[in-house]
Amino acid sequence: MSKFKNRLVSKKELRTICGIPYTPQHIARLEAAGHFPKRVRLGANRVAWVLSEIDEWIMQRLNARDASNDLNASF
């Protein structure tokens, strides 16, 4: 088991480490709609996300893109 399995990333790290270009407001909208991993409340003014959940979310988008490209290539 990796010691970083449940590593948390901050709002800033979503952009710098994960490459997610969304604003905090857009991330909140995606979360509310169930289209982005839920945040973990660390304190009164601090939130973070589980890195493995963010990685999985990114992979789902890449797989959807690849599946779409495969369908378009067959035409």
Q: Based on DSSP secondary structure assignment, what is the total number of beta strands? A: 3
Structural class: alpha+beta
Helix content: 40-55%
- Using the CA coordinates, give the radius of gyration: 15 Å
Q: Describe the global form.
A: globular
Extract low-pLDDT stretches: none
User: β content, as a range?
Assistant: 5-15%
Average of the residue pLDDT scores: 90
One letter per element, helices H and strands E, the order comes to EHHEEH
CA(first)-CA(last) distance: 44 Å
Strand order of the largest sheet: 1-3-2
SS field, number of helical segments: 3
Largest sheet: 3 strands, antiparallel
Describe this structure in words.
This protein is α+β, with helices and mostly antiparallel strands and 75 residues long. It has 3 helices and 3 strands. A 3-stranded antiparallel sheet has the order 1-3-2. The longest helix is centred in the C-terminal third of the chain and has 23 residues, at 51-73. The mean pLDDT is 90.
